[in-house]
Amino acid sequence: MAGIQYNASEFANAIVLSSELVDNIKNSKAQILGILDILASADPEMGIGGEVEGIRSSLSTLEEAALIVAANVRNARILIEKTDAEVASQMNIDINNELDSLKTKDFNNLLDPDYQARIKKAQEEFNNLLAPYDYNAQLKKYENNKISSNAGELWQKVVNGNYNYAGTAIPCNGNTIDCSSFVSWVLLNSGYKEFAGNQHVTQQFVNTDWNKKYGWQEIPVAAYEDVSAKLLPGDILVRDNGNNDGHMNITAYVKDGKVYAYDCGSTNNWRSSKGEPIDKSKFAKTDRRPGKIIRISNLDVDLNKGV
Predict the structure, then answer these.
(1) For residues 23-39, b (16+ Cβ closer than 10 Å) or e, as one string?
(2) Model confidence over 99-153: pLDDT tens digits?
């Protein structure tokens, strides 16, 4: 996947500014502390000891915040390439806002009792922007939903076409289709070129180690097992008893305990569907055949592998 585009000169400028900021704050801190020491030693009876210590603490907090910003700016160029465009844009805005908030020369806010709390909150928000964002998880989620989306598009072609139930070559551009040829067609349409030509039958789907081959997730399914609570949109549910007796479909969604799927197991399925996924709860909950759920959750897949 191509890296996110960004303005390198802006990053370089931000690094320079953040470095200068740290130096300026250190120098200002030293000057202010010098003045406070003179005041405190000149008249110990003035009773300003508490205020002096509060200002010392605030100055240290400001310096630490500046150092954190400088480190974050330097890391941003690396982190931004691991983040999607929307978050990358927001991260750039947050970096600039953080810099602007700390470049002020007005130290009156050091006496603000909420200053340290605001610095802490700003840093937490900045960290939350970066740390919790799981780029791979988001793309995995998208990858599986892409299967569901493609299944929905091809389902409409079947519903609106003059298809009859029978096996066929992939892509299914003739007038016949069955359960495994539909799934094979969806996978081909999603970029997996292995599925072009002869359709993969249910026994092949069950016997192939898709995790080893493509990195797809596999969840074993026992005979008569109710897997309705395990299914997600885009999941492929395949059951086969090993005697050329199998069936499979692609989950559209699960609602109120019922499993709705794109299922080309019979001509009546698509002709009576009115274009909507059909209720296949019985297949998901009580089917006598074992099998597995195949979840397309890989990222670094070689789409040409196996062709």
Answers:
(1) eebeeebeebeeebeee
(2) 566 555 455 555 555 655 666 666 666 565 555 445 455 445 545 578 888 999 9
Q: For residue 242, what pLDDT is reported?
A: 86
The helix (run of H) or strand (run of E) holding residue 267 is helix 267-271
At residue 137, the 3 state secondary structure works out as: helix
Task: Please report the pLDDT score of residue 243 as a whole number.
Answer: 81
Q: By the 8 A CB rule, do 268 and 165 touch?
A: no
- Cα 276 from Cα 270, distance rounded (Å): 8
CA atoms within 13 A on the CB side of 191: 12
**pLDDT at residue 263 above 50?**
yes
Sheet holding 291-295, edge to edge: 217-221, 291-295, 236-240, 246-255, 258-262, 278-279
Listed in sequence order, the residues at least 6 apart from 26 whose beta carbon sits closer than 8 Å to its beta carbon are 63
The single residue listed with the structure tokens 């110990």 is 44
Q: Dihedral sign, CA of 13, 15, 20, 25?
A: positive
- How large a percentage of the chain has pLDDT more than 70? 52
d(CA 282, CA 255): 14
Element (H or E) spanning 237, and its range? strand 236-240
Amino acid at 278: I
Q: For residue 303, give the DSSP letter.
A: T
**pTM for this model (two decimals):** 0.54
- Residue in this structure with the two tokens 């005979």, named with its chain if needed: 223
Beta bridge partners of 249: 237
Please state, in angstroms and as integers, the Cα–Cα distance from residue 196 to each residue in 115, 134, 170, 192, following that order. Answer: 63, 33, 5, 8
Give the count of beta carbons closer than 10 Å to the beta carbon of residue 12.
Answer: 12
Amino acid occupying residue 243: N
Q: How are the residues of the chain apportioned to helix, strand and coil, as percentages rounded to the nearest 5?
A: 55, 10, 30
